[in-house]
Amino acid sequence: MAHLSQIELLLPELRAYARSICGAAESPDDLVQDAVERALRHETRPERIEELRPWMFRVIRNLHYDELRKRRVRREYIAAHKRLMDESDGTSSAGRDVLVRLAFEKLPPETREVLFLIDIMGFKYAEAAEIMNVPTGTVMSRISRARKELLRRVNGDDQDEEQVKQTP
User: Fold this and answer.
1) Could you give the CA distance from residue 18 to residue 21 in angstroms, rounded to a whole number?
2) Domain that holds residue 153
3) What SUPFAM superfamilies does the record tag this protein with (predicted)?
4) What is the value of pTM for the model shown?
């Protein structure tokens, strides 16, 4: 319980810091609560208050930027989805969604992976490369090919390929 009392001593500073980095629409108290919760669950948190103080500030900062990143990815996904719908060839929005999802599911796993990491999750090429354990250039070429393949399938060009495969 010594850790809890140390964290309690830091609460005014933590709240002030959270207020300083949060926008008006965000709740600094929620950010502090999440940070305290994470600290209490973390088994290897610093013992001394001199080390705990900057550690807690980093936790708050990381949680805040993680949330901003999630919001950005959601905004970009929604914008990309809207663009896709605006560019549609007259197919209904729901119908286009189904086509895209079906085309995505038919892609090979490596192709789905790179599309998911870059276009859906919003990772940068370098981040995706690290996750996939490949060079950044490989991610760049894979995403280019994956986007072309998905577009080809959404536009129905994959039907010709399947017919060619079935022809004796």
Assistant:
1) 5
2) 90-166
3) Sigma2 domain of RNA polymerase sigma factors, Sigma3 and sigma4 domains of RNA polymerase sigma factors
4) 0.47
Percent of the chain predicted with pLDDT > 70: 83
The backbone torsions φ and ψ at residue 84, rounded to the nearest 5 degrees and listed phi first, read -60, -40
> Do 64 and 100 have their domain in common?
no
User: What total of structural domains would you count in the chain?
Assistant: 2
pLDDT for 134 equals 93
Q: For residues 78 and 130, is the Cβ–Cβ distance under 8 A?
A: no
Same domain, 121 and 150: yes
DSSP secondary structure string for all residues of 68-94 = HHHHHHHHHHHHHHHHHHHTS-S--HH
Q: Is 136 contained in some domain?
A: yes
CA dist 164 and 149 (Å) reads: 17
